[in-house]
Design a protein that fits this description.
Blueprint (H helix, E strand, L loop, with lengths): L1 H15 L1 H36 L4 E5 L16 H12 L7 E7 L1 H11 L17 E6 L5 H8 L5 E6 L1 H43 L1 H9 L4 H42 L8 H32 L1
Antiparallel strand pairs: 1-3, 1-4, 2-3
Helix pairs in contact: 1-8, 2-6, 2-8, 2-9, 6-8, 6-9, 8-9
Length: about 300
């Protein structure tokens, strides 16, 4: 009987404050969608790091006729200098760190350059001898690239030794910034949702102040009076959370897997399994925030 009375009060409150409830649902939906997006973006960054860091190579760029630097005073790297670098890579000092390496001469570098910049006007002005001959090195442990950089950077005929992970770090830094921005926006939206829930509950309590006074006179406990209001807030937030979860699944299915994974097949992307991990997190977060906010609001109202 008490439960039926509580649910009746919840239904009445939702009906009386329908527009405010819709506002709570929308704000919760938008804020938790940002939260879910930020979580997915962090998952995506983790996947990309695992995928690309293992494939990242160290490039040993040899001198060309236009190279600057102390190692390139004699112009392009000679055959003797190229052989010296190859011997160093195969030697006892560096071999334990190296999985494999290969040499890219001018012609191979020019071919790759033309494919990479096909349709770009710059491809018409670059000649093969302007491109570096390069040793591409795969390390057993990519985090030990500093050993290779230190060993070869000062070698004659070497223009530079570059760890490709430095380029990846720049990309991941941008992605992290986007993720933090999403978290910041989500945080502001969640604050707005909490305040809106508290306002909705207090307005609902104010509109039923006569009923609350009667319930107090007949001996109803504060917990019995508070419960319908808390359930109103939780219901609105729960609907918004479920909608946000559906939006996250939709984003992953249609945009990430349906578009990005098809058009960028060279990397791995988060899938439905990761999205399904995020959904219950959003539901729990939305429900808890709503319950805490509603409980705080109605408790303060009943003390006034």
């Amino acid at each position: 009987m008490r439960f039926s009375l509580i649910w009746s009060e919840v239904a009445n409150g939702l009906r009386r404050n329908f527009s405010m409830v819709v506002s709570v649902i929308l704000v919760t939906f938008i804020s938790l969608t940002f939260v879910g997006t930020a979580i997915l973006l962090q998952m995506q960054i983790g996947q990309m790091k695992n995928y690309w860091y293992d494939k990242a190579q160290v490039a040993v760029y040899l001198c060309t006729d236009v190279s600057a630097g102390e190692n390139c005073l004699d112009g392009a790297a000679s055959a003797t200098e190229v052989e010296a670098v190859k011997s160093a890579l195969s030697g006892a000092t560096l071999a334990p760190f190296i999985d494999k390496f290969y040499f890219e001469d001018h012609e191979a570098a020019f071919k790759n350059f033309q494919e990479q910049f096909k349709g770009n006007p710059v491809a018409e002005y670059v000649t093969a001898d302007q491109l570096n001959e390069t040793f591409w090195v795969n390390l057993k442990d990519p985090s030990q690239s500093a050993v290779l950089v230190e060993a070869l950077s000062a070698q004659k005929g070497v223009e530079s030794v570059t760890d490709q992970r430095s380029y990846l770090d720049q990309i991941f830094s941008i992605l992290n910034s986007a993720s933090y921005t999403a978290i910041g926006v989500a945080g502001l939206m969640l604050i707005a949702a909490v305040l809106l829930i508290a306002t909705t509950i207090r307005l609902s309590a104010f509109s039923r102040r006569r009923e609350l006074g009667i319930m107090r006179l007949v001996g109803a406990s504060n917990r019995f009076i508070q419960t319908p209001f808390i359930l109103e807030g939780v219901f609105a937030a729960l609907v918004g959370s479920v909608l946000a979860g559906g939006a996250i699944v939709g984003i992953v299915h249609f945009f990430v897997q349906g578009y990005l994974a098809v058009n960028i097949p060279l990397t791995s992307f988060v899938g439905i399994s990761e999205a399904l991990i995020v959904v219950p997190v959003l539901v729990v977060v939305g429900s808890l925030l709503a319950a805490i906010s509603a409980n705080f609001a109605i408790t303060r109202y009943l003390k006034i």
